[in-house]
């Protein structure tokens, strides 16, 4: 009975102590407020920047902007001495030491003097604010933001207002995902933002710039097409531009998971060289999908007046959606060099990727048909191994101030091995078997590719608004594989076995694809704000597929199965011409264009000496407008239309028995579809208050859209046809 009063006394004492500590903590801060006005006219200086920093290391403590009446409120500030800085365009910076006293409000009326007036009387001592907004660029002074020793650029970005970084290293600022991170205006290890942010040290960065980068089309032609990429540019300190640096990280659970990364870099004012090695068994590869794209050559196309660049990536090494724990090894080397008085540059990359993957899975599917219900249960195991190496070079030569040539090339080589085992059963709604199957597939293959293109642009006036562009390129891809297919299917009637099908074949596949592309584009300025672009593109793709299936007879795979063996040639030839009208002003960017394409598709069965051809006319209208209603706010609306033609495989598929229970049927009566796509977005961001307004939406509808029709027979075999 005496324990309760003691317990209550302890609780009262604890509550009193908590209240005392809270009051003590609150008493260690003080509110800081004030006003900012013009010295001469006494007018309020709306949006003046006010911030306080530590006297010792100049690290930023708090910041804000003045409201429409010139008032500001920095909120509660810990007691102590600080340096307060107030800046406003056209006015001299106000700098003074302030001290906060616990529990006592500090109100500071501040009057700024114009630089022109002040320079008549006194020399001004200037300071650089930690955040500056210059036009469309937001600039952060790196040393004003405190990070721990050894911190990376990613750690630095996390403490900067208006910038966020998630667990994958993806950067978001001003409501948009950052697509590029540049180092002194150049790419670093390709186009993956994390390569720079996770491998450079924060102490080596002088400034961080955030802006909307123009598209390659706008950069090359001088005509703003309204397409932007959110970009971060890291300005390095002068002493960090020369020398060596690198990082090394590793982790493991000492059981079955591990991850490691080692990188080293060499920088000078004209040279960037680096190496990277990653090894992991976690499913988080050291290089992202975006970066794997950038270890390739650039190809150029013209679409409705846009000169567009695309890369041949290695998405085949992505383990997204696959079963099992991937074991991955990747290496990459880069060498970028600037040379000559006209700032020519070369960028060279080599990468090697090796991936092992093993996994198991089980799926259950329910088919609800008009007259019955079926269940399909599948279990599978797979083992695969593949490697690939890529060597690429991208070169830009400025012959003079008006002529630029880009030469790009890429070579890749790889091999793969796979083995899979799949067991399945097809059941009625009453769980009575319709069929059961067991299938094994094995394959060994190799693939090689070569690609090159050359791009010439000539400015026909000094401003570059009148220009002529020509480009040509080719590619050649060859893949060969040899494997074995064994499939056993048992069919049932009323639950009793009635027949059996066995497939035991050796598979040989050879595939070669050659393509040639050429383009020409001319841009004519109509006025300072308007221009007109005319363009033409030729493209041809020649694909040869040679598939052989050999039956096993007397222990040997030497009996050719003509039903599942074929030699096909696909030829795709297109001519496309179009125009685009562009309008660019300080607040409005608009575009209106139309392109027409004549497309010829031809499929030839070389074995049977027969062919199948179709011709299509495709339309590509486009229109967009961007309204920049403030320095940090914009509205964008885009419409595009395109014709989609059916593929030759949908029109007349090649027979394939790799999955005997799922067959494809051609439909020669297919007509082209037309896709309408409407998209808009709105963004409005205030850096200092970190207020972000972001919204987007869109609608896509298709006339005469393609879809698949499937039917299942009494034996559980499914036939699919495009309609």
What is the CATH fold-level name of the domain at 130-241? Answer: Ferric Hydroxamate Uptake Protein, Chain A, domain 1
**C-alpha geometry:** globular
Measured distance between first and last alpha carbons: 84 Å
Strand content: over 45%
Largest sheet: 18 strands, antiparallel
| Strand element count | 39
Q: What is the average of the pLDDT values?
A: 81
Helix count equals 7
Low-confidence stretches: 16-26, 120-126, 287-314
Specify Rg, calculated over alpha carbons.
Answer: 33 Å
The CATH superfamily of the domain at 130-241 is identified as TonB-dependent receptor, plug domain
Structural class, by secondary structure, is mainly beta
As a percent range, the share of helical residues equals under 10%
CATH class of the domain at 130-241: Mainly Beta
> Which CATH architecture of the domain at 130-241?
Beta Complex
């Amino acid at each position: 009975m005496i324990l309760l009063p003691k317990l209550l006394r302890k609780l009262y004492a604890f509550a009193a102590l908590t209240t005392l500590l809270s009051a003590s903590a609150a008493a260690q801060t003080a509110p800081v407020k004030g006003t900012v006005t013009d010295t001469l006219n006494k007018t309020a200086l709306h949006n003046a920047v006010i911030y306080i920093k530590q006297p010792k290391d100049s690290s930023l403590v708090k910041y804000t902007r003045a409201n429409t009446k010139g008032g500001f409120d920095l909120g509660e500030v810990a007691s102590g001495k600080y340096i307060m800085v107030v800046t406003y365009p056209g006015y001299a910076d106000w700098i003074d030491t302030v001290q906060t006293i616990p529990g006592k409000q500090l109100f500071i009326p501040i009057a700024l003097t114009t630089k022109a007036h002040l320079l008549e009387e006194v020399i001004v001592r200037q300071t650089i604010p930690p955040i500056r907004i210059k036009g469309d660029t937001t600039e952060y002074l790196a040393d004003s933001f405190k990070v721990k020793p050894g911190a990376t650029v990613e750690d630095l970005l996390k403490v900067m207002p208006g910038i966020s970084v998630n667990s994958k290293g993806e950067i978001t600022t001003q409501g948009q995902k950052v697509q590029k991170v540049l180092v002194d205006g150049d790419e670093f290890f390709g186009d993956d933002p994390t390569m720079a942010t996770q491998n450079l040290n924060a102490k080596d960065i002088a400034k961080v710039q955030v802006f909307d980068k123009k598209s390659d089309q706008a950069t090359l032609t001088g005509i703003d097409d309204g397409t932007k990429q959110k970009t971060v540019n890291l300005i390095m300190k002068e002493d960090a531009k020369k020398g060596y640096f690198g990082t090394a990280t590793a982790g493991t659970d000492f059981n079955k998971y591990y991850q490691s990364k080692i990188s080293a870099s060499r920088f000078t004012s004209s040279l960037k060289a680096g190496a990277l090695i990653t090894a992991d068994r976690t499913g988080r590869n050291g290089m992202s999908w975006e970066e794997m794209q950038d270890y390739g050559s650039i190809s150029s196309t013209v679409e409705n007046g846009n000169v567009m660049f695309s890369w041949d990536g290695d998405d085949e090494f992505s383990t997204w959606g696959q079963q099992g724990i991937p074991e991955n090894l990747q290496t990459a080397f880069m060498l970028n060099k600037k040379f000559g008085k006209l700032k020519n540059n070369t960028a060279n990359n080599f990468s090697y990727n090796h991936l092992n993957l093993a996994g198991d899975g089980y799926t259950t599917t329910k088919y609800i048909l008009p007259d019955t219900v079926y269940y399909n249960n599948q279990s599978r195991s797979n083992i695969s191994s593949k490697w690939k190496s890529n060597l690429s070079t991208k070169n830009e030569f400025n012959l003079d101030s008006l002529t630029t040539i880009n030469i790009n090339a890429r070579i890749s080589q790889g091999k793969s091995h796979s083995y899979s085992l799949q067991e399945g059963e097809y059941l009625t709604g009453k769980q009575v078997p319709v069929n059961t199957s067991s299938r094994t597939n094995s394959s060994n293959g190799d693939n090689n590719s070569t690609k090159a293109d050359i791009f010439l642009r000539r400015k026909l006036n000094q401003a570059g608004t009148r220009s002529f562009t020509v480009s040509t390129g080719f590619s050649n891809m060859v893949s060969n594989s040899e494997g074995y297919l064994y499939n056993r299917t048992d069919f049932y009637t009323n639950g009793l076995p009635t027949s059996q099908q066995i497939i035991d074949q050796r598979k040989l596949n050879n595939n070669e694809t050659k393509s040639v592309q050429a383009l020409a584009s001319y841009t004519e300025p109509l006025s300072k704000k308007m221009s007109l672009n005319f363009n033409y593109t030729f493209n041809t793709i020649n694909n040869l597929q040679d598939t052989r299936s050999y039956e096993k007879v007397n222990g040997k795979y030497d009996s050719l199965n003509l039903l599942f063996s074929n030699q096909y040639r696909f030829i795709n030839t297109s001519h496309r011409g179009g125009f685009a009208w562009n309008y660019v002003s300080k607040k409005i960017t608009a575009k209106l264009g139309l392109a027409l394409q004549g497309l010829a598709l031809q499929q030839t069965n070389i074995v049977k000496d027969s062919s199948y051809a179709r011709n299509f006319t495709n339309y590509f209208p486009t229109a967009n407008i961007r309204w920049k209603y403030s320095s940090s706010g914009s509205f964008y609306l885009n419409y595009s239309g395109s014709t989609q033609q059916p593929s030759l495989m949908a029109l007349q598929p090649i027979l394939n028995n790799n999955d005997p229970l799922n067959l494809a049927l051609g439909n020669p009566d297919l007509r082209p579809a037309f896709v309408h796509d409407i998209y808009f977005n709105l963004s409005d961001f205030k850096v200092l208050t970190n207020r972000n307004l972001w919204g987007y939406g869109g609608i896509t509808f298709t006339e005469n859209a393609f879809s698949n029709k499937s039917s299942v027979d009494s034996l559980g075999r499914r036939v699919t046809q495009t309609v």
